[in-house]
């Protein structure tokens, strides 16, 4: 299984990272959110960022999130990642149906520089379409388009993933939750039937934050329920949203909740 959290702990603080992996996470998501710049002005990998990666690797594995910084990873930085044993890349978050073809540049880069590595993209849930965000005639068409147009071309391990946060205020469970999990499971099953030698991994997000419309996760049963549902629908990759919280979005992550799970 691959288990990691968005808005991760401070990647430059070894105590935080050790506590994070001790909590059961298998991977840490390397981002620039902590203020660590990935590249120097000459295009080389920032030594401080490299040191943070190496420190994280002492306790677990690493996923590089680079969907906003594609151009930064061309050239010698690619060799440096390979030399460090980086095998997991998070390429895009919530692409639209109309924008699906824009992911082809990541597929090309991945197949050229990281063949065989993990190719992860997080897709939209069905409820996002109330704003016309995924743009397909159905959620199934949207997920299937990703499988056919993008995942089908990837040389390596690929996920078919969505984020869905089912626990709202004044609601036991949001209505499309189970149908969305089923849609992803069915698309992945169909995909894997056609690719038995290199199957895709089903991946779901786990709600672990509090916001204006999402209630706080105050019981371990809230997490167990989501994990067990994801496993029942075939998931082998789990992305917790979120760990440390996004103050700009007015969200609180699990480390700011009432104690630890």
Sum this structure up briefly.
With 261 residues, the protein is of the alpha/beta class.
Separation, N- and C-terminal Cα atoms: 20 Å
SSE-based structural type: alpha/beta
- Average pLDDT, rounded to a whole number, is 86
What is the approximate shape?
globular
Give the biggest sheet.
8 strands, parallel
Q: What is the topology, as strand order, of the major beta sheet?
A: 1-9-7-6-5-4-3-2
Radius of gyration, rounded? 18 Å
Order of helices and strands: EHEHEHEHEHEHEEHEE
Quick one: how many beta strands? 10
Give the helix level as a range of percent: 25-40%
Given as residue ranges, the uncertain stretches (5+ residues, pLDDT < 50) are: 257-261
Strand content: 15-25%
How many helices does DSSP assign? 7
Explained architecture:
With 261 residues, the chain is of the alpha/beta class. The protein has 7 helices and 10 strands. The strands form 2 sheets. Strands 1-9-7-6-5-4-3-2 form an 8-stranded parallel β-sheet. A two-stranded antiparallel ribbon has the order 8-10. The longest helix has 18 residues, at 177-194. It is globular, with a radius of gyration of 18 Å. Residues 257-261 have low confidence and may be disordered.
Which key features would you list for this structure?
single chain, 261 residues, alpha/beta, 8-stranded parallel sheet, two-stranded antiparallel sheet, 7 helices, disordered C terminus
């Amino acid at each position: 299984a691959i288990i990691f959290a968005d808005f991760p702990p401070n990647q430059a603080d070894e105590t935080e990272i050790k506590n994070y992996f001790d909590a059961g996470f298998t991977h840490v998501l390397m981002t620039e959110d902590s203020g660590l710049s990935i590249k120097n002005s000459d295009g080389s990998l920032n030594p401080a960022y490299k040191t943070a990666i190496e420190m994280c690797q002492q306790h677990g594995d690493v996923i590089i999130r680079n969907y906003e910084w594609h151009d930064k990873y061309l050239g010698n930085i690619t060799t440096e990642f390979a030399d460090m044993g980086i095998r997991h890349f998070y390429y895009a978050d919530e692409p639209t149906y109309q924008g699906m073809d824009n992911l082809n540049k990541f597929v090309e880069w991945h197949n050229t520089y990281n063949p065989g590595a993990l190719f992860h993209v997080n897709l939209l849930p069905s409820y996002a379409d109330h704003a016309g965000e995924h743009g397909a005639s159905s959620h199934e068409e949207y997920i299937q388009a990703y499988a056919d147009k993008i995942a089908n071309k990837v040389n390596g391990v690929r996920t078919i993933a969505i984020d869905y946060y089912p626990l709202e205020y004044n609601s036991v469970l949001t209505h499309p939750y189970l149908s969305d999990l089923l849609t992803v499971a069915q698309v992945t099953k169909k995909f894997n039937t056609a690719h038995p030698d290199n199957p895709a991994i089903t991946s779901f997000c786990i709600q672990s934050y509090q916001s204006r419309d999402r209630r706080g996760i105050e019981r371990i049963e809230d997490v167990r329920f989501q994990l067990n549902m994801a496993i029942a629908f075939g998931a082998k990759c789990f992305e917790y949203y979120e760990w440390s919280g996004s103050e700009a979005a007015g969200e609180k992550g699990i480390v700011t909740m009432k104690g630890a799970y």
